[in-house]
Amino acid sequence: MSDSNTAAVRLKALEVFAPDAKPSDATRLTGPVDLEIPQGEHVLIVGPSGCGKTSLLRAIAGLSRKTRGTVELFGQVATQGGKHTLAPEKRGIGYLFQGGALWPHMSALKTLHFTLRAGGVPKSERPERAAELLSLVGLEGFEERRPAELSGGEGQRLALARALCLRPRLLLLDEPLGPLDAPLRASMLASIERLAEEFALTILHVTHDPREAQSAATRTLTFEKGLLHTDEIHA
């Protein structure tokens, strides 16, 4: 068990390598990275496309197999020496993928029911939980719409609801506002801030745009060629 003084994320010499290659300097996508994120922070990582930001998130989530170093989450070792000691579904993580990555054949309601079922939520609890999630992101009345029938902002809100399905403690955001215009970005960011406060979330948020979420972030890190460079503390 962890307490409120335990870091949400602690990375020690974390390196991520190309998935189909032998780990080496030539195949390294990210790292080595050392990073500690206290619980409750909203950390913004800014860097150009292709610099390794997504690889970092995937390693934290347990979705990368070719790694070195250590990932600790809320006081538990999750990855060490290239081996997962904590399965992805046991890490207490919600992941909003770049572009939403919604399942095109599933309605909004089915998307949430499927995620809740996969997460082991009892069948009797799923309708209420799904309805609550749709309400949280402002998608009441959109239950039967599929991704192609949603606007960009609506799709991202559904992706956010899916990321929150299993009540995570850590939320990973991969370019969450990229496909949205300025008013929708502001609305989506406000929703993320509100939900982070309501559910006591720690957020690790990657983007290529340094202006995207600086108003919400407690710290901004810059990422270039797989390495962290700057740690800017916001007031």
Structure at a glance:
The protein is built from five helices and eleven strands, in the order βββαββββαααβαβββ. It is an alpha/beta fold and 235 residues long. Strands 7-8-9-3-10-11 form a six-stranded mixed β-sheet.
Task: Summarize the topology.
Layout: E1 9-17, E2 28-37, E3 42-46, H1 53-61, E4 67-73, E5 76-80, E6 83-84, E7 93-96, H2 108-118, H3 126-136, H4 152-163, E8 170-174, H5 182-198, E9 202-207, E10 219-224, E11 227-233
Parallel strand pairs: 3-9, 3-10, 7-8, 8-9
Antiparallel strand pairs: 1-2, 1-4, 4-5, 5-6, 10-11
Helix pairs in contact: 2-3, 4-5
Verbal overview:
With about 240 residues, the chain is of the alpha/beta class. The protein has helices at about 55-60, 110-120, 125-135, 150-165, 180-200; strands at about 10-15, 30-35, 40-45, 65-75, 75-80, 85, 95, 170-175, 200-205, 220-225, 225-235. A 6-stranded mixed β-sheet has the order 7-8-9-3-10-11. The protein has a 5-stranded antiparallel β-sheet with strand order 2-1-4-5-6. Strand 4 and strand 5 (about 75-80) form a beta hairpin. The mean pLDDT is about 90.
Trace the largest sheet across and list its strands. Answer: 7-8-9-3-10-11
Measured between the Cα atoms of the first and last residue, the distance is 31 Å
Order of helices and strands: EEEHEEEEHHHEHEEE
Number of helices: 5
How much helix, percentage-wise, in residues?
25-40%
Ranges where pLDDT stays below 50 over 5 or more residues in a row are none
Count of strand segments:
11
Radius of gyration: 17 Å
What is the overall shape? globular
> How would you classify the helix and strand content by structural class?
alpha/beta
Q: Give the integer mean of the pLDDT values.
A: 90
Largest sheet: 6 strands, mixed
